[in-house]
Backbone:
């Protein structure tokens, strides 16, 4: 009895184990011309029993060819649809990235000058957000309050503080006193 070689070309298919088992079964009963010649050499050549057995083996072989062809066609269609879906997703992503791309020669807009000088002598420090008026008063532009340099402040234990630059003592209740004259500025 001749053993047919196992088809290794389809071993990469998802159902390779099933195909290997079917190939082993078919090798026991080869079909085609070789099967007909081997069947003729067996006992009772030309009998109806041999003819029917060979016909059944041939039908099984055609069924196997048909099912493996259908499975291969299904696998090919599945691979092609996956590749097409992946290509569509890649194309959409590339289109979105192209819409949001920055120009290659982009120059960021020029910000404000560090110091802006006004006609009346007032200056605006845009780095520290301090407006300095002609009379020397400084205003914090983010809060609108008078600006006092942190280095010129002396904190007192009762919550009062002394502005050594302007010589103003601010009491805990908010009363401001000029330290040179001793006069109350605001209550």
Residues:
């Amino acid at each position: 009895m001749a053993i047919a070689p196992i088809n290794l070309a389809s071993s990469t298919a998802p159902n390779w184990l099933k195909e290997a088992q079917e190939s082993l079964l078919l090798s026991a009963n080869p079909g085609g011309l070789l099967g007909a010649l081997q069947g003729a050499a067996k006992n009772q050549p030309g009998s109806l029993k041999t003819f029917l057995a060979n016909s059944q083996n041939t039908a099984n072989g055609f069924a196997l060819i048909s099912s493996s062809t259908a499975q291969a066609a299904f696998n090919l269609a599945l691979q092609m649809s996956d590749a097409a879906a992946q290509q569509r997703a890649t194309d959409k992503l590339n289109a979105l990235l192209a819409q949001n791309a920055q120009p290659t020669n982009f120059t960021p807009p020029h910000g404000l000058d560090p110091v802006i000088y006004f006609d009346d002598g007032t200056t605006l420090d845009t780095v520290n957000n301090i407006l300095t008026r002609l009379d020397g008063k400084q205003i914090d532009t983010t809060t609108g309050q008078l600006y006092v340099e942190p280095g010129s402040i002396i904190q007192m234990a009762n919550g009062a503080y002394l502005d050594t630059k302007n010589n103003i003592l601010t009491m805990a209740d908010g009363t401001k006193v000029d330290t040179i004259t001793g006069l109350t500025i605001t209550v």
Q: What stands out?
A: The chain has a mean pLDDT of 79.
